[in-house]
Input
Amino acid sequence: MEAAQTSDSRPIIDRLAENNVADKPKEKKRMKFGTLASISAAVLSIGFVAQIAVNNVSAVSTGINSVSVKSPTTQENTSTISVPAGVNLVLTGVNGHSWVGLTNADGASVFNGQIAFGQVVTINDPKMIKAVIGNAGAIKVNINGSDLGVAGAEGQVVRLDFDPNGQL
Output
């Protein structure tokens, strides 16, 4: 009776696969260390770049200029505004939103951010303000109490320079 039994020491699954009774087991694919290291480095570098981008988005103030941002629910009465000496620039969101970058005569950033519909940003500087408006059709410009209207066409990028006498 022992002669009827084989002395095959292979696992049963291999013998079943040989007789087409079961599928041959597949080996698990292992991830190489280099692949894991590459993925980790990519995730860390994306996180690092995102952190830098978030930190650069915040508005920078130099301390020389005054900056005020009013919420959309605040009403401003332009007829009673006293105009200080120098440049008094008031930007109002009137149609959607726009990115605006403002620098002073020294090239220091005094405002860098988005202005939404109804939001008002007021900047004062004794010498000059340079403005870059990403969506000129969304921003109304008031310089030293004089309303210049909308800065340009919808979607147009404009660069404007203002001194105490008005627009350059």
User: Anything to note?
Assistant: DSSP finds two helices and ten strands in the chain. The chain has two domains: 12-57, 66-167. Residues 33-57 form the longest helix (25 residues). The helical segments are 12-18, 33-57.
